[in-house]
Amino acid sequence: MAFQSSISLKDCPFTYSIHPNIKKYTLRDNTFAQTKVGNYELSRLLESVPNSGDGFLLKIIVNKELNGFKINITDKSGLRLVNIFKSEENHIIQEKFFFLMDSLVEREIFTKEKQ
User: Fold this and answer.
1) Considering its fold, how many domains does the chain have in total?
2) What is the secondary structure of 16-80 as a DSSP string?
3) What range does the domain containing 91 cover?
4) CA separation (Å) from 34 to 4, 25, 38, 61, 98?
5) Which Gene3D superfamilies match (predicted)?
6) What is the chain's pLDDT, residue by residue, as a tens digit (115 residues)?
7) Residue 1: inside a domain, yes or no?
8) What predicted TM-score, i.e. pTM, was given to this entire model?
9) C-alpha distances in angstroms, 108 versus 22, 29, 45, 102?
10) 19, 27, 51, 97: which has the fewest C-beta neighbours closer than 10 Å?
11) What DSSP element (H or E) covers 111?
12) What CATH number does the domain containing 64 carry?
């Protein structure tokens, strides 16, 4: 999957885009780790029961030029993409995803638009 300036996950009611004021230090302050190639990566486990270790892995990667990003939600192994928005059973996981993304929107890393 290539880096994009705007991403709409399947069945998600929002589209996320790179904020024009994004800064490298803001990414580091929000626990994005710099990879060997210079990209910034954030990984979080979205769990319905806290500290259970059972959930879906959210990975957000912002490229080093700060003009594109990727969002992947996979199973715990990180091998199979998962659609958390398809089923209402994942309501708690959806809330945790929206909470994290809203905090990144507040910090001017992303912008959010309703579809």
Assistant:
1) 1
2) EEE-TT--HHHHHHTTPEE-TTS-EEEEEEEESSTTSS-EEEEEEEE-TTSS-EEEEEE-TTSSS
3) 6-114
4) 18, 11, 6, 10, 23
5) Lp2179-like (3.30.1820.10)
6) 689 999 999 999 999 999 999 999 999 999 999 999 999 999 999 998 888 888 999 999 999 999 999 999 999 888 899 999 998 889 999 999 999 999 999 999 999 999 8
7) no
8) 0.93
9) 6, 12, 22, 10
10) 51
11) strand 110-114
12) 3.30.1820.10
Alpha-carbon distances, residue 29 vs 20, 24, 57, 62 (angstroms): 18, 9, 21, 14
The amino acid at 49: V
What distance lies between CA 108 and its chain's CA centroid? 14
What integer pLDDT is reported at residue 1 of this predicted model?
A: 65
Q: Is 98 exposed, middle or buried (0-12, 13-18, 19+ CB in 10 A)?
A: middle
- Does some domain include residue 105? yes
